[in-house]
């Protein structure tokens, strides 16, 4: 047997039965949406396996889609086979190809922009559209999976090989990036591309969804420090420039990162200025038995995020970047600098710092809708 037919034979053995291909595509797309969304919250290098899983699954989808198209492609190309559901199939295919293509181009480090969207944002858009499309598409030709399609040992081997081949392909791609010295080789483990330079002009101004407040006047500006603290206070803009400096990496989920020197006040010092965190029983009033656990940072727009107290104390409320006073777009007079957290958690235009006892579930919604009328 020559090498060609050997590889062909191996590929044939790897190919799941038709119904299993369909169900696997559905499961892989759902898994991609989940790993993709969860990866948005990961900023520490130990989180790398999640990103690798996302890439391996994506390459798995390429293989599954190739098998599927080899089987049913004629239903799309031969007009006599068109049915009402064909339009949906085509739409689903377009979304799938769009997601795959943007993902693949992204790993090569190409920095194409569609207006102010990075290719990674377009990838996310296609991916989010793909989930309901795949679900609707599956519903038009629903067939329950059968036990014979997922015979245990073969299934386990098949999917292990598929994912391992996906991871190996990604590893090869990285080697190609390094060898060809493409921009892709400078990417972080999160996939983000570097933005070099220092200060306000060195990195983009990014609002997560719709936040776009008017510039804040420094004179009337006050920062409230309250909640479970001993002596709630209001500080003005110059109180905040307390001369603490820290280098930290901002990694935005739209696919870029930058390392900057941030200046401002340590949040721990800020809480000390308010008499310190009040232990349970120390605050007057009805909620005196609350145990302080989180510090919540709220923007003038309502956008907000909380950090566990210990982490918050070491975070910075920044007034400066790269030695310059923060520009309005980057969050003046003060923005949160939360090392190891993804960019969307670095609240800009902070007007309130509040010690709380409870986890703030609402922040997940508020960051998506703040800024809308
Ligand atoms: N109030 C507020 N803070 C915000 C955002 C926002 O939309 N509103 N966007 C976040 C996102 S998604 C990122 S990546 C960083 C970007 O900071 P930059 O605009 O200074 O680059 O700010 C974060 N802070
Ligand atoms: Mo972001």
TrEMBL record:
Entry keyword Lipid metabolism: no
Annotated Pfam families: Oxidored_molyb (PF00174)
Oxidoreductase molybdopterin-binding domain mapped to chain residues: 216-364
Residues spanning the membrane: 21-44, 50-67, 88-108, 114-135
GO molecular function, one term: oxidoreductase activity
Keyword list, A-Z: Membrane, Transmembrane, Transmembrane helix
Keyword Endoplasmic reticulum among record annotations: no
Residues covered by region (Disordered): 183-204
The protein's name in its UniProt record: Oxidoreductase molybdopterin binding
Classification of source organism: Archaea, Methanobacteriati, Methanobacteriota, Stenosarchaea group, Halobacteria
